[in-house]
């Protein structure tokens, strides 16, 4: 099936009865698809122009609570509407759902029809626009990890998410025999996404029992973020259809590996023909432009960490010896560092950010990294020497990844660089999201506290 699916093709499919439902989706702060199911005939006649949603959709937590303290929306302001404007360039068939197509929407102010600045897609598009003004085209790819369970989502919830049985009993990293046992689910995911116009490279067993990794082809930053959001939803829907469950939590279990979402990135010429990070005469094949970009990532690593690790749970993944980084340094093909140089001395040279977990919102994560890299370019920041050796054993004088959500949120909130790149209102919006996440956690009683203190306290 073609990766491109036009509006005219949709109209033909609707007329001939192959498509009867269109999902019109925006991406919320948590990176989830939120929207409406249109009858396809109405969508092609009228709904393709716009639809509407309550503006709280871009100001809620994971539980869809109406969180107080946001400047953009509140009970006092009456929780009015946003406009959802379908981007018909994102239109695609959804093979794993019968008679269904999907389109992603931009989120606009109901009165002015200007894009809502704190909506994830608008935030990324703004940074892409800044790069384009310099003649740069951002290319990115994510590697998504998740755990696959033999229980359904419903049975896992009924069990209080205890006693879950993973799809494997042992570490299945690169393991063909074990992943053969999981092919019923993983083949459906690969083929379903390929049929939805998302070019899949491969899936593989990851570094723990029941852990999977999915890789897709490098793409423009916005296209890749769109793919990432759809992929996560697809994995959940397809697993659910098979009576299974998956989790993208950064740290599902203390004894298990974390789920990462490594982000590979490079800049190319505007027409996509010239890799601007490559210089055969530069150190390791790096151009000066790439050196400045990576220097920006390093300089602003603490400030952008919130957009790579947005939850309390995200920070429990950063443990030494687990392939999750603890130091915000760069190194050559070294998986202990926060940033890894890949494709050395080739046109495919790129920097891999290993900080983000699978719980990140791709639009926010991409936007933050592009803004940091662009700041490095504009200020011609000098790149430090690559770290050599085991970064886990590096001393405390080495730049560290923030250890808690509190620390990361404070670094974001006080960042003049981010406020300049994103705008004060956007940073204030996500500061409130971080505050609420922390407030909710601080007042909850956890299983760990009960087990530790019920008798002994």
TrEMBL record:
<keyword id="KW-0067">ATP-binding</keyword>
<dbReference type="GO" id="GO:0042402">
    <property type="term" value="P:biogenic amine catabolic process"/>
</dbReference>
<dbReference type="GO" id="GO:0006576">
    <property type="term" value="P:biogenic amine metabolic process"/>
</dbReference>
<keyword id="KW-0436">Ligase</keyword>
<dbReference type="InterPro" id="IPR014746">
    <property type="entry name" value="Gln_synth/guanido_kin_cat_dom"/>
</dbReference>
<dbReference type="GO" id="GO:0005524">
    <property type="term" value="F:ATP binding"/>
</dbReference>
<keyword id="KW-0547">Nucleotide-binding</keyword>
<feature type="domain" description="GS catalytic">
    <location>
        <begin position="120"/>
        <end position="457"/>
    </location>
</feature>
<comment type="function">
    <text>Catalyzes the ATP-dependent biosynthesis of glutamine from glutamate and ammonia.</text>
</comment>
<dbReference type="InterPro" id="IPR008146">
    <property type="entry name" value="Gln_synth_cat_dom"/>
</dbReference>
<dbReference type="Pfam" id="PF00120">
    <property type="entry name" value="Gln-synt_C"/>
</dbReference>
<comment type="similarity">
    <text>Belongs to the glutamine synthetase family.</text>
</comment>
<feature type="domain" description="GS beta-grasp">
    <location>
        <begin position="17"/>
        <end position="112"/>
    </location>
</feature>
<dbReference type="GO" id="GO:0004356">
    <property type="term" value="F:glutamine synthetase activity"/>
</dbReference>
<dbReference type="InterPro" id="IPR036651">
    <property type="entry name" value="Gln_synt_N_sf"/>
</dbReference>
<keyword id="KW-0535">Nitrogen fixation</keyword>
<dbReference type="InterPro" id="IPR008147">
    <property type="entry name" value="Gln_synt_N"/>
</dbReference>
<dbReference type="GO" id="GO:0006542">
    <property type="term" value="P:glutamine biosynthetic process"/>
</dbReference>
<protein>
    <submittedName>
        <fullName>Glutamine synthetase</fullName>
    </submittedName>
</protein>
């Amino acid at each position: 099936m073609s990766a491109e699916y036009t509006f005219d093709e949709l109209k033909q499919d609707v007329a001939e009865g192959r498509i009867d439902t269109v999902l019109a989706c925006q991406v919320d702060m948590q990176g989830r698809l939120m929207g409406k199911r249109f009858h396809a005939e109405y969508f092609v006649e009228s709904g393709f122009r716009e639809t509407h949603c309550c503006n709280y959709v871009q100001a809620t937590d994971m539980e869809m609570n109406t969180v107080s303290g946001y400047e953009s929306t509140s009970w006092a302001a009456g929780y009015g509407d946003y406009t959802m404007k379908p981007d018909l360039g994102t239109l695609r068939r959804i093979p794993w759902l019968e008679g269904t197509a999907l389109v992603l929407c931009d989120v606009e102010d109901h009165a002015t029809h200007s894009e809502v600045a704190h909506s994830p897609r608008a935030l990324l598009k703004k940074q892409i626009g800044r790069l384009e003004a310099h003649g740069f085209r951002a290319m990115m790819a994510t590697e998504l990890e998740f755990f696959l369970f033999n229980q359904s989502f419903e049975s896992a919830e009924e069990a209080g998410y205890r006693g879950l049985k993973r799809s494997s009993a042992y570490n299945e990293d690169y393991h063909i025999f074990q992943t053969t046992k999981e092919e019923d689910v993983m083949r459906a995911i690969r083929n379903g996404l390929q049929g939805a116009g998302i070019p899949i490279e491969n899936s593989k067993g990851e570094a723990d029992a029941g852990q999977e990794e999915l890789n897709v082809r490098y793409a423009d930053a916005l296209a890749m973020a769109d793919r990432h959001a759809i992929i996560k939803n697809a994995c959940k829907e397809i697993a659910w259809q098979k009576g299974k469950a998956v989790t993208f939590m950064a740290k599902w279990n203390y004894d298990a590996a974390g789920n990462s979402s490594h982000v590979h990135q490079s800049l190319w010429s505007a027409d996509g023909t010239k890799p601007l990070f490559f210089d055969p005469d530069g150190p390791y094949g790096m151009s000066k432009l790439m050196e400045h970009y990576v220097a920006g990532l390093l300089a602003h690593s603490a400030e952008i960490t919130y957009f790579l690790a947005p939850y309390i749970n995200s920070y429990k993944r950063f443990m030494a010896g687990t392939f999750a980084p603890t130091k915000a340094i760069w190194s050559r093909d070294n998986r202990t560092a926060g940033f890894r140089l890949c494709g050395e001395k080739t046109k495919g040279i790129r920097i891999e950010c290993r900080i983000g977990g699978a719980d990140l919102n791709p639009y926010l994560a991409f936007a933050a990294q592009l803004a940091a890299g662009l700041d490095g370019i504009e200020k011609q920041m000098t790149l430090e020497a690559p770290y050599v050796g085991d970064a886990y054993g590096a001393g405390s004088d080495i730049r560290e990844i923030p250890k808690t959500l509190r620390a990361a949120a404070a670094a974001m909130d006080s960042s003049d660089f981010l406020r300049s790149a994103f705008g004060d209102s956007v940073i204030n919006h996500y500061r409130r999201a971080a505050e609420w996440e922390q407030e909710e956690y601080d007042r909850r009683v956890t299983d760990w506290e009960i087990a530790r203190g019920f008798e002994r306290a």
